[in-house]
Amino acid sequence: MKHNKLKIFLIITLILIILTLITVSVIFVIKKYSNPTTNEPIDITNYTKTEEIMKENNAYQEKYEQEYASIDYTDIENFPTIINNLLNKNYTAEEINSILKNYSSLIDVLLTMKHVDILKLAKLTNYDETKLNRYLDYYEKNDYDIATAVTYVNIGLDLEGYSEYITYNAEEAKDITILVNKYHKLPDDYEPDDLVSLSYNENYKLRKEAAEAFEKLTSAGVLENVIFYPFSPYRSFKTQEVIYNRYVKEDGQKNADTYSARPGFSEHQLGLAVDVRSSSLTDNLTEEQYNWMLNNSYKYGFIIRYPKGKQHITQYIEEPWHIRYLGIELATKVHDSGLTYDEYYDLYMKNC
Ligand SMILES: [Zn+2]
Predict the structure, then answer these.
(1) What CATH number should be reported for the domain holding residue 240?
(2) Which residues constitute the domain of residue 81?
(3) Centre of ligand 1 from the C-alpha of residue 298, in Å
(4) 319 given a catalytic annotation
(5) Catalytic choice (40, 319, 329, 343)
(6) pLDDT tens-digit profile of 3-24?
(7) Mean pLDDT, to the nearest integer, of 321-336?
(8) pTM, to two decimals
């Protein structure tokens, strides 16, 4: 009997020990996984500097408990107020650390505007520190994400077209990939030295490489029963001046600027752009022809330079007839990107 009692006592003890161990393990596991972002429970002796400062200044808000623990303290004036204001603007601890480290001079501005994806901004390859205020200003006033705002400001779209522009020299103007728009001007006297006539009309000229590509494009169209003709290829500065001034006279400058380039700002002066027309020469391309052009011209080195729905970027109304030569490789990349050349240039060409 005595031996049996001892046995039962030992079994019960063992069961109790096992139960205790299970309970402890379960509690441990629950604690560990229920709050994976908190490394350690906050105990009174283990505050971070930020937490300490927030408490000392009566600025500690329970709902930001986790954020405070991850924000690196920085010795700046009004630190607690700034931190709470940034948190109220939905900045994460990671973003706040980036702001404190890289953009501390901007804190006042950031606090007066909508939330900026600061981590995205820091990663952009076309980001230019000198334009930071313009980026933020443009971003605040428009509904674009920060990456788009940066690209658009780099293009110059926060400024009125022609208000500020770069003027190329003759050597730069010869580059097949050159970007010409309302922010990039050609020298007045620039004329390509390798213009050749198109077979359609000897007075119609393009630079040799573009002319050869255009003949191939035309032939490819013929084979698929897509017939179009060039009607305005290379134009000198003087010719562009005459055309533009005529439009201004007829239609007013504001309207003219939406479809005609000012002299020096036209791709036609490059000898790399050509306007095409449908069979009757007075008609634009039909929708079918335009779609063919859209899907095939890049194979011969041309892009549709002013596509539909992109006027806010190109600064020109849709011009389905205007194609620009860039060479097959680049035209293919631009086509595949779905971007306008203005955007593509800023994102991928500028720093090459
Ligand atoms: Zn044109």
Answers:
(1) 3.30.1380.10
(2) 40-113
(3) 17
(4) yes
(5) 319
(6) 788 888 888 888 888 888 888 8
(7) 97
(8) 0.82
